[in-house]
């Protein structure tokens, strides 16, 4: 594996499978009385958040702590308008504090890439979501969730539905699922598909009803109401009617098909409450799996060569 | 003022001749010339071109002297072989009054490294609402003939029409920065497959082309002169070609970086490659080169845009648009146009000296290298090759996209009205 995790596209199939297997081992920890491993004792993981995301930060924090790493949370304010805290100065500070890994969430696409490549710091960089670019650990936890339910993903059909244009989750999922052999169909109104999507090596469709009966996985993406003000779709009502997942549409799914959502959900917009709470929904499980996958990422990036589980308290890793 | 005898220069790439520069003019051209007391310049292997003229630079003074000053910007110009540069109006304060354009013009004269011809803003404060006092700027000591809101597009069709009409009174030209604002809100890079992958907001070609098409039609309708700044797409080249075929008075420029670099560089997320208009696809680059070769694109202009380090040492989205261009322009043109066989040195002289001077109505520049003409001369060594080192640049800023890249050629000497501003590759 590379030293950083910036894009889901950086992972080879071997890398991705190693991550999933490691996550599986680590997940079993959740069922044990002592939920902590010494694997990253003495290592420092910094959560560097330039954009609020409590759920992602908490997930990474829990992952690092269960591996006994020291965790520093650092939130920096700023936007493209008010540059605020400079990424460079912040990273120099973290470097001075001896960060081994920096988990970065940023409003600007490419910020983790810059952090890893500008020569400011020697830490491993984990992209925890950058702008409208990528969110590789989300893709890993999604793949992990699918894998647990469906087994090997070769030939499995995954429909990713909604605001693909602005979604870092969709980008990372498209890349990773392709690597794992799944067939991805992006479903959205034409306004919410990126220009050039023909080159992504995925299927696209404007017609949700045509895609659903064949899907093994339906992943609904969050759609912000405000997008209608920029003419991406006329009204929330029309969006829900054409691209929302409701009970009627759910009835057309195959028996084994699971429904996913990266959260936070807008119930009534892209997904109805009855679908989100149905037994097809694995949305809560995605959260649990998030911690296991992030443990695997930190463990493998920070050089864990021995098995993650099995190492006992006091082992010098 | 001492005389200079240039020995054995290849005039516009032709057979070597000697040139005697005396009293600010080209006094003699011939072989085996001698002149008592003249300083000899050995030009063996060097190409002699008329002093280059740039229709598009940002010298940043007044207002952003931390990025560039007229002094350092004109030093960079001289090092690049330029004897005249147009300074865009997006300074602080904006060059939208006779007072500010005269200030810039005066700063240029004081610096003395090349002539500085201020461009006047089309609208007050570049705000796109009311016409600036174009006539006052035209009548000022700076004799402004080129008007532009560059950095911003005159997007209002009525204002653009009026500006085109109004400048006819003093033979002016409106130089349009063609960028439909709504189609490019928060745009970061060329819209294409890569922008989608990188998650950077796309800048569609149509945002440039729609404005160019509209403006060509407006210029034809009111019978005025339009100049299109930094054409960057294949479609824009097509539209300009079409307008010219109609006999309309439309001229266009291309920037060196758009002749060489492509949007693939954005994948580094290094904002050194962030520029307005953005780097485009290889197909666009090809079309620009063809357009420049066949004369559809009249001139090469640098759009020299200095920025302090901190404005480029940050996230792509937060970084400033623009790149340096003056000191590398001729080298990039050699690599993309001359070494590829698309343009002769005579063609380069036309695109980088005669035509830009004509569009800008600069009477003392862009003249042929003939006896009796102003002694604005560049001596250029096309056989030289160097790796660009930003720390060696004369510009106050360092934001060149060519760092670490090998480029051919070197300006050995630049003469402004017979006085060397650069000699032996060094500023005088
Ligand atoms: Zn411009």
TL;DR of this structure?
With 317 residues, chain A is an alpha/beta fold. Chain A has helices spanning 13-27, 54-66, 87-96, 111-117, 136-150, 168-179, 208-211, 236-243, 247-250, 273-276, 283-301; strands at residues 44-49, 70-75, 101-106, 124-130, 157-161, 183-187, 203-205, 217-220, 258-260. In chain A, the strands form 2 sheets. A 5-stranded parallel sheet of chain A has the order 7-6-5-8-9. In chain A, strands 2-1-3-4 form a 4-stranded parallel sheet, with helices on both faces.
Anisotropy-based shape of chain A: globular
Q: How many helices of chain B in DSSP terms?
A: 11
* Poorly predicted residue ranges of chain B: none
Backbone CA Rg of chain A: 19 Å
Mean of pLDDT of chain B: 97
- Each distinct ligand: zinc ion
Q: What is the CATH architecture annotation of the largest domain in chain B? A: Alpha-Beta Barrel
- Helix/strand/pairing class of chain B, anyone? alpha/beta
**Unreliable residue stretches of chain A:** 311-317
The largest contact between protein chains, plus residue counts on each side, is:
A-B, 30 and 25 residues
Q: Can you give a write-up of this model?
A:
The complex is a heterodimer of chains A (317) and B (428). Chain A has helices spanning 13-27, 54-66, 87-96, 111-117, 136-150, 168-179, 208-211, 236-243, 247-250, 273-276, 283-301, and strands at 44-49, 70-75, 101-106, 124-130, 157-161, 183-187, 203-205, 217-220, 258-260. With 317 residues, chain A is of the alpha/beta class. In chain A, helix 1 (13-27) crosses helix 5 (136-150). Mean pLDDT of chain A is 90; it is low at 311-317. Chain B is an alpha/beta fold and 428 residues long. Chain B has 2 domains: 4-47 and 373-427, Roll (Urease, subunit C, domain 1), CATH 2.30.40.10; 51-359, Metal-dependent hydrolases (TIM Barrel, Alpha-Beta Barrel). Chain B is 28% helix and 22% strand. Chain B is built from 11 helices and 19 strands. In chain B, helix 7 (234-245) packs parallel to helix 9. Bound molecules: zinc ion (ZN). Residues 150-151, 177, 229-230 of chain B line the site of zinc ion.
């Amino acid at each position: 594996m590379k030293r950083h995790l910036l894009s889901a596209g950086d992972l080879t199939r071997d890398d991705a499978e190693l991550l999933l297997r490691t996550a599986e081992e680590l997940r079993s920890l959740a069922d044990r009385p002592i939920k902590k491993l010494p694997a990253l004792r003495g290592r420092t993981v910094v959560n560097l958040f330039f954009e609020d995301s409590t759920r992602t930060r908490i997930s990474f924090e829990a992952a690092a702590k269960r591996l006994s790493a020291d965790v520093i949370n650092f939130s920096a304010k700023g936007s493209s308008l008010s540059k605020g805290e400079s990424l460079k100065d912040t990273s120099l500070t973290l470097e001075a504090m001896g960060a081994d890994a920096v988990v970065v969430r940023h409003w600007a696409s490419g910020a983790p890439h810059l952090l890893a490549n500008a020569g400011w710091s020697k830490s491993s960089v984990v992209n925890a979501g950058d702008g409208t670019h990528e969110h590789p650990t989300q893709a890993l936890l999604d793949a992990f969730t699918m894998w647990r339910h469906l087994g090997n993903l070769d030939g499995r059909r995954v429909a990713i539905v909604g605001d693909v244009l602005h979604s870092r989750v969709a980008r990372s999922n498209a890349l990773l699922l392709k690597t794992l052999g799944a067939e991805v169909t992006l479903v959205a109104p034409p306004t919410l598909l990126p220009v050039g999507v023909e080159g992504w090596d995925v299927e696209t469709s404007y017609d949700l009803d045509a895609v659903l009966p064949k899907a093994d996985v339906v992943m609904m993406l969050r759609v912000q109401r405000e997008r209608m003000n920029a003419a991406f779709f006329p009204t929330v009502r029309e969006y829900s009617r054409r691209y929302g997942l409701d009970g009627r549409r759910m009835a057309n799914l195959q028996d084994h098909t699971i429904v996913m959502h990266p959260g936070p959900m807008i119930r009534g917009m892209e997904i109805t409450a009855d679908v989100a709470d149905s037994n097809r929904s694995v949305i809560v499980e995605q959260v649990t799996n998030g911690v296991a996958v992030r443990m695997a990422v930190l463990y493998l990036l920070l050089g864990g060569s021995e098995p993650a589980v099995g190492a006992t308290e006091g082992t010098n890793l | 003022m001492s005389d200079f005898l240039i020995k054995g220069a290849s005039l516009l790439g032709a057979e070597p001749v000697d040139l005697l520069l005396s009293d600010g003019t080209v006094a003699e051209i011939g072989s085996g010339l001698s002149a008592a007391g003249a300083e000899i310049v050995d030009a063996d292997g060097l190409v002699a071109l008329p002093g280059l003229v740039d229709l598009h630079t940002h010298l940043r003074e007044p207002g952003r002297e931390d990025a560039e000053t007229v002094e350092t910007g004109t030093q960079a110009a001289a090092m690049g072989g330029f004897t005249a540069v147009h300074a865009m109006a997006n300074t602080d304060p904006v060059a939208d009054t006779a007072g500010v354009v005269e200030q810039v013009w005066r700063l240029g004269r004081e610096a003395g490294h090349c002539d500085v011809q201020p461009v006047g803003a089309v609208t007050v404060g570049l705000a796109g609402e009311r016409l600036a006092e174009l006539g006052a700027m035209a009548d000022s000591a700076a004799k402004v003939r080129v008007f532009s809101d560059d950095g911003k597009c005159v997007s209002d069709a009525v204002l653009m029409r009026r500006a085109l009409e109004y400048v006819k009174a003093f033979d002016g030209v409106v130089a349009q920065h063609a960028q439909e604002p709504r189609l490019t809100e928060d745009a970061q890079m060329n819209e294409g497959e890569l922008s989608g992958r990188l998650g950077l907001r796309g800048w569609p070609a149509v945002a440039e082309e729609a404005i160019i098409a509209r403006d060509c039609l407006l210029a034809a309708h009111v019978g005025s002169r339009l100049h299109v700044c930094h054409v960057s797409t294949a479609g824009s080249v097509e539209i300009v070609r079409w307008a010219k075929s109609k006999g309309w008075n439309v001229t266009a420029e291309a920037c060196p970086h758009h002749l060489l670099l492509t949007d693939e560089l954005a994948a580094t997320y290094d904002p050194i490659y962030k520029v307005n208009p953005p780097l485009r696809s290889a197909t666009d680059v090809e079309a620009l080169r063809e357009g420049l070769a066949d004369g559809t694109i009249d001139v090469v202009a640098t759009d020299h845009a200095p920025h302090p380090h901190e404005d480029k040492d940050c996230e792509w989205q937060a970084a400033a648009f623009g790149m340096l261009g003056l000191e590398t322009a001729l080298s990039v043109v050699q690599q993309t146009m001359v070494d590829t066989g698309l343009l002769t040195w005579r063609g380069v002289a036309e695109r980088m000296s005669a035509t830009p001077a004509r569009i800008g109505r600069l009477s003392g520049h862009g003249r042929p290298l003939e006896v009796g003409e102003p002694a604005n001369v560049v001596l250029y060594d096309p056989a030289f090759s160097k790796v660009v080192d930003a720390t060696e640049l004369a510009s106050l800023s360092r934001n060149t996209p060519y760092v670490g890249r090998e480029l051919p050629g070197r300006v050995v000497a630049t003469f402004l009205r017979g006085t060397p501003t650069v000699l032996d590759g060094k500023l005088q």
